[in-house]
């Protein structure tokens, strides 16, 4: 029924507007009352005014309200029923994508870095960097972490007692207590015969990023919550080879790893060759896949062992996923 009011002829609308104007004059201009009322047809006025509210109501119901802008919610305390589309306004706060500049005397840790390598690169001792940066574990640093590589104001160096405590402050150690780790207590290589010949490097297989560093068999594999590398058996004094191209990031002694060589590649990949008897690759040297970088320890009896690790962007990874199957 209400819909029929929306189709009234134009003459009704004209009459209604004219009547409304006349009524305004009637009620608000008393000084012209007689003149105005003489021109009003009250029957026509009553008829038009009775149709006006219904016509206005019908007009409102027949014209829908415009939809709100995309991404806008009428109730600010409720969540939209559907996920925001691509047209949703950008958040007020965006995560910062650029790193703040490193202050002078500091260094930002890069993938594959070790505290010992950083210290050597800046002509410092790793125990100095550990003290200046209040690191509880020198072997735990994070990619992106900013480390101080120069002494703080008023400090020239870590006291010598930090690195070599005085004998009077602790019991006198035994002759083997200063060894980096138990595996490094074998007799020196010079007292043992050299191997008759060195094994050739394992052949590289196309399609694999790494090649095996030695021909020996794996005695212990990679473990997510245990061994973070491969333990590979080898002949006493035999050669160890680079598993990929790269730069020697470190060559020397490292607590927990004995004599070790670290080779860093450009893809954020780094490999470690630990418990060596000798490291022949020098720090900063560029090596190619299959180059000899060291030797197994020369042991009096039984096989020697190489500990081989892979780090991808600073995180331990299973080397067998990049090595050819045997």
Give a quick set of tags describing it.
326 residues; alpha+beta; Membrane-bound Lytic Murein Transglycosylase D, Chain A; Glucose Permease (Domain IIA); 3 domains; ten-stranded antiparallel β-sheet; two-stranded antiparallel sheet; 6 helices; 12 strands; globular; M23 family metallopeptidase
Provide the fold topology:
Elements: H1 10-28, H2 33-37, H3 42-62, E1 106-108, H4 115-121, H5 126-132, E2 146-148, H6 160-163, E3 218-220, E4 230-234, E5 239-241, E6 246-254, E7 258-264, E8 269-279, E9 286-287, E10 292-296, E11 304-312, E12 315-317
Gap between N and C termini: 88 Å
Tell me how many strands there are: 12
Radius of gyration: 43 Å
Percent range of helical residues: 10-25%
CATH superfamily grouping of the largest domain: Glucose Permease (Domain IIA)
The fraction of residues assigned to DSSP E strands is 15-25%
Number of helices: 6
Name the helix and strand elements from N-terminus to C-terminus, one letter apiece: HHHEHHEHEEEEEEEEEE
> pLDDT under 50 segments (min length 5)?
1-6, 29-38, 65-88, 90-96, 158-188
The geometry reads as globular
Could you report the average pLDDT, rounded to the nearest whole number?
71
Biggest sheet, open or closed, and with what strands and sense?
Answer: 10 strands, antiparallel
Q: How many domains comprise the coordinates?
A: 3
Task: Give the structural class.
Answer: alpha+beta
């Amino acid at each position: 029924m209400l819909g029929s009011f929306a189709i009234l002829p134009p003459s009704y609308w004209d009459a209604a507007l004219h009547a409304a104007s006349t009524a305004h004059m009637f009620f608000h201009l008393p000084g012209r009352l007689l003149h105005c009322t003489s021109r009003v047809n009250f029957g026509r006025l009553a008829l038009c005014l009775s149709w006006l509210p219904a016509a206005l109501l019908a007009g409102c119901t027949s014209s829908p309200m415009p939809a709100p802008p995309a991404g806008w919610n009428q109730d600010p305390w409720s969540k939209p029923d559907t996920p925001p589309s691509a047209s949703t306004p950008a958040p007020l706060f965006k995560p910062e994508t650029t790193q703040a500049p490193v202050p002078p005397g500091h260094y930002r840790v890069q993938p594959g870095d070790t505290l010992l390598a950083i210290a050597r690169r800046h002509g410092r001792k790793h125990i100095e960097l550990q003290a200046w940066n209040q690191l509880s574990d020198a072997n735990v640093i994070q990619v992106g972490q900013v480390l101080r590589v120069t002494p703080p104001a008023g400090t020239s160096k870590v006291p010598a007692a930090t690195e070599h405590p005085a004998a009077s402050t602790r019991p006198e150690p035994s002759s083997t207590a200063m060894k980096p780790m138990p595996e490094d207590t074998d007799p020196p290589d010079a007292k043992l015969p050299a191997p008759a010949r060195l094994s050739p490097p394992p052949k590289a297989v196309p399609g694999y990023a790494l090649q095996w560093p030695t021909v020996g068999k794996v005695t212990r594999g990679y473990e997510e919550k245990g061994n973070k590398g491969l333990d590979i058996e080898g002949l006493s004094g035999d050669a160890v080879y680079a598993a990929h191209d790269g730069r020697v990031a470190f060559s020397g002694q490292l607590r927990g790893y004995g004599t070790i060589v670290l080779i860093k590649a450009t893809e954020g990949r780094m490999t470690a060759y630990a418990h060596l008897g000798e490291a022949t690759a020098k720090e900063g040297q560029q090596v190619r896949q299959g180059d000899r970088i060291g030797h197994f320890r020369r042991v009096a009896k039984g096989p020697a062992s190489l500990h081989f690790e892979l780090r991808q962007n600073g995180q331990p990874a299973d080397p067998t996923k990049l090595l050819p199957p045997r």
